[in-house]
Design brief:
The complex is a heterodimer.
Chain A (H helix, E strand, L loop, with lengths): L4 H25 L2 H17 L1 H4 L5 H10 L4 H9 L13 H15 L3 H12 L4 H8 L3 H18 L1 H9 L1
Chain B lengths: L11 H12 L11 H21 L4 H7 L2 E7 L5 E6 L3 E5 L6 E5 L5 H10 L4 E5 L26 E3 L5 E4 L9 E9 L2 E9 L13
Parallel strand pairs in B: 5-8
Antiparallel strand pairs in B: 1-2, 2-3, 3-4, 4-7, 6-7, 8-9
Classes of the chains: A mainly alpha, B alpha+beta.
Chain lengths: 168, 209
């Protein structure tokens, strides 16, 4: 593949953002395969419109938002044609960590879509309120309201886990 | 989180614990697709983004079925849109500097699609396709009833390839039509073109006089 300055610029961004974006998308959709497909498609779209996306205040937020609104059939089709790479398998997690992850996922999935999106951008991507609001196309006050409600719900759902974490 | 710990939601330590717990979840080290795959897919999408404006007037079905490579260029003024279309049946290319349109007809084609593409390039055309009759006879030249032949010297020029025509849309008189007479011969085709004063009512029998 011929590499252009655009490719190098994008590739550097991809290296920086890929793991975080994938994790954030997974937190929103709850399925690794779907998250990987959607994230890859979103990054591909970012490449296709890199001139514009690179000037976005938070390109990784653009990727995550796009991934959550993306039809992923292209990657699904391709997946059948590509030999599975065992290195893609998730590392074995400690049982306790796996249990907590399942609880966190269940709590996230119980949130309304918009609240979950806010959690993904604010907590997983570590965006500030203003950038989150811009990424979602809502007012900062709306982000704060959604986050407040989401944290209250998460706190209720994860009460025992958070207490255990404090004790550790 | 990156900024204010309050963020409009009280709760102090408990809230911080929830944020800490959630933010540390799903750390499985997954990295997603290979960079090359993403860039290859991105290039595919980028090509498609360039193509779609050029084919907007043609409809999605026609575009999906015949398009091989279409690259839409900038507007070519009043003469039409600059196009670069390549598929198995025909190609249409606009010279950005001169505005001249080069058309190559390679094999049996969708007349309506080519007509629409050339219309976008500023060239009004009419197609007549003739197949040999039962006796194997081909009427080699249509007579184009209901219209009259115009001098095509400034509008149309041929190239060394008999199926390639170079058209200057800006020189086409108002209302004029470029008529193509298409003859499939086995796997190949012979094509002739004639500039007409208007759209013919069909392909008339050749004059015997």
């Amino acid at each position: 593949m011929d590499h252009t300055p655009r490719d190098e610029d994008f590739a550097a961004f991809y290296e920086r953002a890929r793991a975080g974006c994938l994790r954030a998308v997974y937190a929103a959709v709850g399925d690794w395969t779907r998250a990987e497909d959607a994230t890859a498609e979103a990054f591909a779209r970012a490449y296709a419109g890199w001139r514009k996306v690179s000037r976005h205040p938070a390109p990784h937020a653009w990727v995550v938002r796009t991934a959550l609104n993306t039809h992923v059939s292209w990657w699904r089709r391709r997946r059948r044609e590509v030999a599975w790479d065992a290195s893609h398998d998730a590392e074995d997690l400690a049982p306790e960590r796996a249990r907590i992850d399942r609880q966190v996922m269940a709590a996230l999935q119980a949130l309304p879509d918009r609240q979950r999106e806010v959690v993904v951008l604010r907590i997983f991507l570590d965006l500030d309120t203003k950038t989150t609001a811009r990424a979602l196309g809502v007012a900062p006050g709306t982000v704060m309201t959604h986050l407040s409600r989401a944290l209250a719900s998460l706190q209720k759902a994860l009460g025992s886990s958070t207490r255990q974490e404090h004790l550790q | 989180m990156s900024e204010e710990s309050g963020d409009g939601c009280g709760g102090g330590v408990a809230e911080a614990a929830v944020i800490s717990l959630v933010s540390s979840a799903f750390e499985e080290g997954r990295r997603g697709s290979d960079t090359r795959d993403v860039i290859a897919r991105g290039r595919q999408l980028r090509r498609r983004k360039r193509v779609m404006p050029a084919l907007g007037a043609l409809g999605a079905v026609g575009a999906a079925t015949t398009l091989a490579v279409v690259l839409a260029g900038s507007s070519n003024g009043a003469a039409g849109t600059a196009l670069n279309v390549d598929n198995v049946a025909f190609s249409v290319h606009t010279d950005a500097a001169s505005g001249k349109v080069t058309v190559t007809i390679k094999q049996m084609f969708d007349e309506n699609e080519l007509k629409a593409i050339l219309a976008k390039a500023g060239v009004r055309v009419y197609f007549a396709s003739q197949t040999p009759d039962a006796s194997g006879t081909v009427r080699w030249f249509c007579s184009w009833p209901g219209t009259r032949n115009l001098n095509e010297k400034d509008v149309l020029s041929s190239t060394s390839k008999s199926q390639t025509f170079v058209i200057d849309p800006s020189k086409m008189p108002s209302g004029s039509v470029l008529a193509f007479d298409y003859h499939p011969i086995g796997k190949r085709a012979a094509v002739t073109a004639q500039l007409l004063s208007g759209e013919p009512s069909g392909c008339g029998a050749p004059s015997t006089g």
